[in-house]
Amino acid sequence: MNLQRLDKIISSQLNISRKLARNDIHRGRVTVDGVTVRDTAFQVCADSAVIEYDGQAVSYKKFLYLVLNKPKGVLSASNDKTRQTVVDLVPEPLRRPDLAPVGRLDRDTTGLLLITDDGAFAHKIISPKSGIFKKYRVLLDGSLTKETAEAFEKGITLTDGTQCLPARLEILGESEAEVEICEGKYHQIKRMFGTVGLGVNELCRIKIGGLALPEDLPVGFCRELTAEELENIVKIT
Ligand code: URA
User: Average pLDDT, stretch 182-204?
Assistant: First the structure.
């Protein structure tokens, strides 16, 4: 049974401070299974109790899993003193204290970014050991060749000697391709193309595992993942 203190549940699910949650509980704004509870330490079964705040149901979610269509110019971080971060794009009702991006996209990279407060999940998605491929659409400043695809397939050695795992490169046009990698080294795709003399003009992540960037999610917008989408992420592609 998932027993938790009432003030902890109210504070985490409504994204308010523990102090404010306690005040609200004392003032009788919270009911559990239809009964007003003023004891802030009251133990509640978070998965089954019906909790209401000012008569509105508080749905308990241990973790939150969000998908963002990242715009250019936004930092992949939880907070920053001066620059806008991806977590700043999370709408107020979905805000939680520990939300963080799952891995990083460069500031000028766009597309699919997951945001969650489930650290173990994030680690699993990022870890190369999980074999979850991330797919990117790339526009380059030069011409692609069959040899580039072959080199990617063998595993590129970066200029500093770092060895990359085998990657998949599908050539879509003279300077356009889709690339899949299952690791996330610093600026990896840009550096991989750099080794064959190509610069990256545009980079957009379009897929993580079996989850494609939702077509109806406008750039800069963020929403909760459905249970099905969440399952799709870890499907090996
Ligand atoms: N590779 C890069 O070079 N940049 C990104 O943002 C993601 C992968």
Answer: 97
Q: Please tell me the distance between residue 36's alpha carbon and the centre of ligand 1 in angstroms.
A: 51
d(CA 164, CA 75): 25
State in Å: Cα 182 to ligand 1 middle. Answer: 12
User: Yes or no: is domain 65-128+214-233 CATH 3.30.70.580?
Assistant: yes
Residues 234 and 132: beta-carbon distance below 8 Å = yes
Query: Could you tell me the end-to-end alpha-carbon distance of the chain, in angstroms, rounded to an integer?
Result: 35
Query: Which residue has the CA at smallest separation from atom 4 of ligand 1?
Result: 187
Q: Which two tokens stand for residue 103?
A: 């891995």
133-208 folds as Alpha-Beta Plaits (3.30.70)
- 110: its two tokens: 């766009």
User: What's the CATH number for 3-57?
Assistant: 3.10.290.10
For residue 140, what are the contacts with CB-CB under 8 A and spacing of at least 6? 175, 176, 177, 193, 198, 199, 200, 201
Ligand 1 pocket test, pick from 86, 102, 105, 183 with the greatest ligand atom count within 8 Å of Cβ, gives 105
Out of 106, 117, 118, 216, the active site residue is 106
Residue 20 confidence (pLDDT): 95
Average pLDDT over residues 201-217: 97
Judging by DSSP bridges, how do beta strands 200-208 and 110-116 pair with one another?
parallel
pLDDT of residue 154: 96
Catalytic-residue membership of 106: yes
pTM for this prediction: 0.90
